[in-house]
Write a structure and sequence with these properties.
By secondary structure, the chain is an alpha+beta fold. 33% of the residues lie in helices and 29% in strands.
């Protein structure tokens, strides 16, 4: 356990009111798998879907149920004791448990391998758009599970996740060597490209691309820059709250994973570090040099936000009308009093 959360959060652990969660035993270098599985276990809709899953004939014939049934057994164990992931590694055909793998790769692999009705909360749809100077637009729609955010800051500069997400949707111009062919123009043209979300997922997962290929060194290099991580995100009137962070320490050749997760059962934060589970202070996330994957849960959709704004408008109107009626009532009461005073001051001659 290369960077246990306990060292950072001793005060937070002192609380005995926290719910008791259980960990996953490391088979060698399977911290990447343990971390992903704990994030999935602590996703309410997904846990419920896994626990209630019953394979049908189609699932059995297509071989989709094996991994899901292993996860069902694992989640049942995690409700009671520290568990082992041997059934999962077998279902995923992981031969060498002493070789570390990429957590993001296995997060995607697991969700793509299990049946769609169980993993649907993690899936959204993106449209990749391109436009030529004559405004001919080409659009390609693709499902997505993770949204990759490029990190263009220096190793000691602060990367702002919110600004990185905004940049993902900003239009950009391709270099001439990369211009796309326009069917209607019948030639390669200047090309503007941009991304849009067509369908918003229940769980929005952001992949912070800390690893990049360095052509000077001819190898992948990790960017250890600190990050400004927002607890809430808003995308086109859809509001998301952060509930899980996958951390990675070390570099590409080796290191350690753990997860920091907000429980949907008691709203407390916990650090899941293989078999060790401890209470966690969310303040420790700020300026993190370890965050690698962020998971946000949809709290308010566009419809909910519009309804919320509508209700607030109605309340303001009601309050304004109420105040006007009060003023009008006071004025009606004062009219006869003022009239008597006027008659007293200016009697008829």
């Amino acid at each position: 356990m290369g960077f246990g959360c306990s060292r950072l959060n001793r005060d937070a652990q002192a609380s005995h009111s926290a719910k008791q969660y259980h960990g996953l035993r490391n088979q060698g270098s399977t911290c990447y798998l343990n971390t992903v599985l704990q994030c999935l276990y602590m996703t309410k809709d997904f846990r419920k879907a896994v626990q209630s899953f019953k394979p049908g004939p189609q699932d059995s014939s297509q071989g989709n149920a094996g991994l899901l049934l292993q996860m069902q057994n694992l989640f049942g164990e995690l409700n009671k004791v520290n568990a082992t992931t041997e059934g999962i590694t077998e279902s995923l055909s992981i031969k060498n448990v002493h070789e570390q793998q990429d957590a993001v790769e296995y997060y995607q692999r697991i969700l793509k391998q299990i049946v769609p009705q169980v993993s649907k909360v993690f899936e959204g749809k993106l449209s990749y758009n391109s436009k030529c100077p004559d405004k001919h637009i080409y659009q390609e729609k693709c499902p997505f599970i993770t949204m990759p955010l490029a990190i263009d800051t220096g190793h000691n500069e602060i990367y702002n996740v919110k600004e990185g997400l905004e940049a993902f949707f900003q239009p950009s111009q391709l270099d001439e060597d990369d211009w796309l062919y326009c069917d209607q123009c019948d030639r390669k043209t200047e090309t503007e490209i941009w991304n849009e979300i067509e369908e918003f997922p229940t769980v929005l997962t952001l992949h912070l691309k800390r690893f990049d290929f360095d052509y000077m060194q001819m190898k992948h290099v990790k960017n250890h820059c600190p990050m400004e991580i927002p607890l809430t995100l808003q995308l086109k009137n859809h509001e998301y709250d952060l509930y899980a962070v996958v951390n990675h320490s070390g570099d590409r050749s080796g290191g350690h994973y753990n997860a920091v997760i907000k429980s949907f059962e008691d709203n407390q934060w916990y650090c899941f570090d293989d078999s060790l589970v401890t209470k966690y202070s969310v303040d420790a996330l700020q300026k993190s040099r370890l965050a690698y994957l962020l998971m946000y849960r949809l709290t308010l959709s566009r419809r909910d936000l519009l309804l919320q704004k509508f209700v607030k408008s109605i309340r303001r109107m009601t309050s304004a009308l109420h105040n006007r009626f009060i003023i009008a009532g006071v004025a009606m009461c004062l009219v006869p009093v003022m009239w008597r005073m006027f008659r007293h001051l200016f009697p008829k001659s």
